[in-house]
Design a protein that fits this description.
Layout lengths: L7 E4 L3 E5 L5 E6 L2 E4 L4 E4 L3 H18 L6 E6 L2 E5 L2 E2 L2 E8 L3 H5 L7 E11 L8 E2 L1 H6 L5 H23 L3 E8 L1 E3 L5 E3 L8 E5 L9 H4 L5 H12 L2 H6 L4
Antiparallel strand pairs: 1-2, 2-3, 3-7, 4-5, 6-7, 8-13, 9-10, 9-12, 10-11, 12-15, 13-14
Helix pairs in contact: 1-6
The structure holds adenosine-5'-diphosphate and magnesium ion.
Adenosine-5'-diphosphate binds next to strand 2 and strand 7.
InterPro entries: SAICAR_synt/ADE2_N, SAICAR_synt_PurC, SAICAR_synth, SAICAR_synthetase, SAICAR_synthetase_CS
EC number: 6.3.2.6
Pathway: Purine metabolism; IMP biosynthesis via de novo pathway; 5-amino-1-(5-phospho-D-ribosyl)imidazole-4-carboxamide from 5-amino-1-(5-phospho-D-ribosyl)imidazole-4-carboxylate: step 1/2
Length: about 250
């Protein structure tokens, strides 16, 4: 336990969010719990939380450098991030560059079809309703976001896609698809929150198309954490690896 942690605000499937002494900031603890298939598949994997926190922090820093507002303040421990406290928008914003997973089950895309422009999808982040897909009209009618805010969310998500796709491709990985969540900061800005990690992306080796993400767990295969460790090693620079004892 670190002393900045105060009361637990909420506990989700993979992270705990704590209040801190500063009302504008929260502490996000990345746990080792992993779930898939709408909570139907669960496990606890040593170091998974730390790897996701390290990867997310790196991505947030890169995005900040490109002018995208993110929640990231600092990593105070390998699995504990100090972040801006956000009033979360209950949307899972999904961006896809290649057709795979549920897209193939639901629509007549070809396997691994390149999606250009990328396909954007909004799901309602709501466990009771099992995260149904929304459209603009439903989002506006439910007062989840306004038309202008949705347009801004689309623009930011496409920029995240471009920045991270390029960064990862230079390191031998294809960003196949990802999910992001946004929230409002105290000034009403739309800010990227939550995490971007192998739990929330599909990352493929650019040559073999081997997975380095949660699909390994979804398929019931071994080596999930080893794959996440490969991603940590690919994205962190030497200084960052030394700081967090990654070899
Ligand atoms: N910066 C933030 N401020 C407040 N809440 C956040 C922030 N970033 C993420 N959250 C919320 O923290 C919760 C915990 O994360 P997670 O374990 O992934 O939960 P879930 O099971 O709901 O996806 C999520 O509901 C997420 O929306
Ligand atoms: Mg989550």
């Amino acid at each position: 336990m670190t002393d900045v942690k105060k009361e637990l605000l909420y506990t989700g499937k993979a992270k705990n969010v704590y209040k801190t002494e500063n009302d504008d900031e929260v502490l996000i603890e990345f746990r080792d719990d992993i779930t898939a298939l709408d909570g139907g598949k669960k496990d606890t994997l040593n170091k998974k939380g730390a790897y996701n926190a390290l990867i997310s922090s790196k991505f947030f820093k890169i995005l900040e450098d490109e002018g995208i507002l993110t929640q990231f303040i600092k990593l105070i421990n390998e699995n504990e991030m100090i972040a801006k406290s956000l009033d979360m928008i209950p949307l899972e914003v999904i961006c896809r560059n290649i057709a795979t997973g549920s897209l193939l089950r639901k629509y007549p895309f070809h396997k691994n079809q390149h999606l250009q422009p990328p396909v954007l999808q909004f799901d309602y982040k709501n466990d009771v309703y099992h995260d149904p897909m929304l459209n603009d009209s439903i989002i506006i009618a439910l007062e989840i976001a306004t038309e202008e805010q949705l347009q801004q969310i689309r623009q930011i998500t496409l920029k995240i896609n471009k920045v991270l796709s390029e960064f990862l491709y230079e390191r031998g990985l294809i960003l196949v698809d990802f999910k992001v969540e946004f929230g409002f900061d105290k000034d009403g800005n739309i800010v990227l929150g939550d995490e971007i990690s192998p739990d929330t992306t599909r990352l493929w080796d650019s040559e073999t198309h081997k997975n380095f993400d949660k699909d390994i767990f979804r398929k019931g295969e071994e080596g999930v954490v080893d794959a996440y460790e490969v991603v940590v090693n690919l994205v962190l620079n030497d200084e960052e690896k030394q700081k967090w004892n990654i070899d």
